[in-house]
Write a structure and sequence with these properties.
heterodimer; A: 14 helices; 2 strands; flat; B: 9 helices; ABC_transporter-like_ATP-bd (chain B); ABC_transporter-like_CS (chain B)
Chain lengths: 326, 278
């Protein structure tokens, strides 16, 4: 940095004197070769090929049995249960999470304390314990009634009838999900700049409008990826409902497995592939939802995979043409 | 760059702002120690003072973004954020007997009152997920003053007035700082406020962008809107202000026309401050 400016000029001119006669700016820059990277790539490719080969050829996996089971009605019934439980729990859990998050952000110390305690408790208790606890709830509370607290009841449900297996599963998962969703939502709301709240207040925007149109859309930018993460966790957590005698995807595979012990591995693979598909679908939806809420937040919206493929091909073609020309 | 004020749509009649004996503490720190200030309709008041002198707090108290601990503010004689206890629809400045008997208004009423007071922030605080047009149209549509189409029509008109008719569909992040601040001014104008408060509107701007924002403010001043401006642009203050208020340590040290306060300051503190910023 302390060199006189003349030194830099001399350095820049040096190669042109002993290089070929072409002027400096016409010369092509040869990219740095990276042999290490090529070696590691080759090793990884070999490992991947080996794994794929093993997956396809090892008789242990019994792919013929896999294709037998993959679309069996019993498996599809289980899949439907998984989807149902996931959908109900995701919606109820998110709704509960929003309420709890608002509670934690409330100015009332009581609401704050209650929300905090709920989240603390439900995040501490294993989901399987919550589910089994609820499963036995009809023994704990004989009836459930709606009425004045500690006062007379207007109407009541019979505990054991209310607690159908599906209800137990959905309630248990929702209770658990709400605690996690609350923190996701709260984090999202806190991520919105204080200036946005002030600007909305200074404009005299009605309170509901402030939340729905100004704060929430911005909060969703950070809520969506975190909540999808949560949702994927939920899809897999539904496999626990098997323990409250609900035959979901995992549960039906498990049951089939105990009837056909020889098919356990292909059945587990059936389950794996279905969960992979579910997660993939959710990820695709996530991409487009995130893209929607990125409006205004980034200068350019992230390209869709199709567009990325197209620009990739165009660039590759241009590069090949360039290489050929030189 | 901007249309002449005469072509502009009729704004609400310029408002009077009265600040009476306002005190504000942050914890034990006294930020404002008894501010009395009257801004007449159409008057342009520039508030000067070193950082930490309470300028921004004063501005934020006027539209009740912060509550005064003692004292009150009224716009066109209507108390902001509070009402007199018991008195049924009594207006006017509370008398001594009303002291300590002011009652906080509901949030909804305060929000309505804020519609009559425009506020322009140092850092613009535009809504990033809305286009320039949607930013401006939001308030009149959300408060039900105008239908959606009318609000957009008004927004288009106001964007034209600040010289940004061609940027209606742009998201704030794609605009320069100066353009963002002009959108923010259009947004403040959308509710046809009787007074507009500017909190250091050019402090976050690159020097070459300051001029375009000042030009818009100058236009508003010429149009007869009541303005209260916190700024460090002394030259601008001299040009535009009807009155300059110098604040230090939460108190008004002196006030008067720019020819007095800026050119012949009577107080040592004012002289000291001016010698540093000029």
């Amino acid at each position: 940095m302390s060199e006189p400016p003349g030194a830099a000029v001399a350095l820049a001119e040096a190669p042109s004197t002993d290089g070929p006669s072409k002027p400096l700016r016409a010369q092509r820059v040869v990219p740095l070769r990276r042999p290490g990277r090529w070696i590691v790539t080759a090793v990884v490719l070999v490992l991947v090929a080996q794994f794929a080969h093993g997956l396809a050829t090892n008789p242990f996996y019994q792919w013929d049995r896999w294709s037998y089971w993959f679309l069996r009605p019993s498996i599809l019934d289980g899949l439907l249960i998984t989807l149902e439980v996931t959908a109900y729990s995701a919606v109820l859990g998110l709704a509960g999470g929003i309420v709890l998050a608002l509670g934690r952000l409330s100015r009332s110390p009581v609401l704050r304390a209650v929300s905090w305690t709920y989240i603390w408790a439900l995040r501490s208790i294993p989901l399987i314990v919550v589910l089994l606890f609820l499963y036995n709830v009809s023994a704990l509370y004989e009836t459930l009634s709606v009425g004045i607290p500690f006062g007379p009841a207007f109407f009541s449900f019979d505990g054991s009838r209310l607690a159908t297996d599906m209800a137990v599963a959905v309630v248990g998962l929702s209770l658990n999900e709400a605690a996690y969703a609350a923190e996701v939502v709260r984090g999202g709301i806190l991520s919105v700049d204080q200036g946005q709240h002030e600007a909305a207040a200074a404009l005299g925007l009605p309170k509901r409008y402030q939340f729905r149109r100004i704060v929430l859309p911005q909060a969703l930018r950070s809520i969506v990826p975190n909540y999808v993460n949560q949702l994927i966790g939920l899809i897999k957590a539904t496999s626990l409902v098997f323990y409250v005698s609900l035959l979901d995807l995992f549960g039906s595979a498990q049951t089939m497995g105990s009837t056909y012990p020889g098919d356990i591995v292909p059945l587990l693979l059936v389950v794996t592939v279905w969960y992979l598909i579910l997660t993939s679908v959710v990820s695709v939806i996530q991409f487009y939802v995130e893209r929607h809420y990125a409006r205004g937040a980034t200068r350019e919206l992230p390209p869709t995979p199709l567009r990325r493929l197209r620009t990739g091909v165009t660039e590759l073609r241009a590069r090949i043409r360039r290489e050929a020309a030189v | 760059m901007t249309a002449t004020p005469r072509e502009a749509p009729a704004d609400a009649p310029a408002a009077t702002v009265e600040v009476h004996d306002v005190h504000k503490w942050y914890g034990t720190h006294l930020v404002l120690g008894g501010i009395d200030l009257t801004v007449r309709p159409g008057e342009v008041t520039v508030v000067l003072g070193p950082s930490g002198s309470g300028k921004s707090t004063l501005l934020r108290i006027i539209n009740h973004l912060e509550k005064p601990d003692i004292g009150h503010v009224s716009v066109n004689g209507e108390l902001i954020g509070v009402k007199r206890r018991g008195g049924r629809r009594r207006t006017g400045v509370p008398t001594a007997e009303d002291r300590g008997r002011l009652k906080e208004l509901s949030e909804r009423t305060i929000l309505t009152q804020r519609g009559r007071i425009g506020f322009v922030f140092q850092n613009f605080h535009l809504f990033p997920h809305l286009t320039a047009l949607e930013n401006v149209a939001a308030a009149p549509a959300a408060t039900g003053r105008l239908g959606k189409a009318e609000a957009r029509e008004l927004a288009r008109e106001l964007l034209g007035r600040v010289g940004l008719a061609d940027k209606a569909g742009a998201y704030p992040r794609r605009l320069s700082g100066g353009q963002q601040q002009r959108v923010a001014i259009a947004r403040a104008l959308a509710l046809r406020p009787g007074v507009i408060l500017f909190d250091e509107p050019t402090s976050a701007l690159d020097p070459e962008l300051v001029g375009e924002v000042l030009a818009v403010i100058k236009d508003l001043a010429a149009g007869g809107t009541t303005l209260v401006i916190v700024t460090h642009e002394i030259g601008f203050a001299r040009e535009i202000a009807d009155r300059v208020v110098f604040l230090d340590g939460g108190r008004i040290v002196e006030q008067g026309p720019p020819s007095e306060v800026l050119d012949r300051p009577r107080h040592e503190r004012t002289r000291d401050f001016l010698s540093k910023v000029l």
